[in-house]
């Protein structure tokens, strides 16, 4: 807003508010089962609408699913606030980073429009640096690599097939993320691994602690 002026920034905020109202009202352009593919919005609500249908009940169920998925994170935060673990300075730093990244991925789970995990590369690097089990590291690679290569799938498809692979709405037919919710796969995997780490290093709540 400081660079381009107040009117532009204000209009951006208004546009976002209108988008939220459209989502709540059910008038957002959701992809439904009759559409040929999922598209780029990989939110839990969009996935459920695409698999089932666009009805008020489905939208409510999607919100309930998000709340269930995020409940363990809320419990971890409560455990940490009411009964913080005794950690060294280095361990405390790692715990704080894990908590911040877990809250960050949790925010993307809650959103109804999810096109990307903006700092996914940072979460990816953190997990590879801190995970000890080889299986868990392999899982991180397997889940994140297809997501990281989306641009190459898009560019490669255009180079090979030209404009024919680009449909209205800029959907690129050679992009696997329009068929599978790769972004949400990454978010849920990272969220689960971070949550497991936090749960294992945060003492359980007790009556005395509360």
Features of the shown structure:
210 residues; mainly alpha; disordered C terminus; 2 domains; two-stranded antiparallel sheet; single chain
User: What's the shape?
Assistant: globular
Give the strand content: under 5%
Report on the biggest sheet.
2 strands, antiparallel
Helix content: 55-70%
DSSP summary, beta strand count: 2
- Give the strand line-up of the largest sheet: 1-2
Gap between N and C termini, in Å?
Answer: 44 Å
Q: Nearest-angstrom radius of gyration?
A: 20 Å
- Helix and strand succession? HHHHHHHEEH
The parts where pLDDT drops under 50 for at least 5 residues are 205-210
Number of domains: 2
Number of helices: 8
pLDDT average, as an integer?
Answer: 89
* Oligomeric description of these chains: single chain
Protein model, in words:
By secondary structure, the chain is an all-alpha fold. The chain folds into 2 domains: 1-29; 68-201, no CATH class. It is built from 8 helices and 2 strands; from the N terminus they run H-H-H-H-H-H-H-E-E-H. The protein has helices at residues 6-25, 44-51, 56-82, 89-110, 120-130, 134-148, 150-161, 182-201, and strands at 166-167, 171-172. A two-stranded antiparallel ribbon has the order 1-2.
Compact summary:
Strand 1 (166-167) and strand 2 (171-172) form a beta hairpin. The protein contains eight helices and two strands. By secondary structure, it is mainly α.
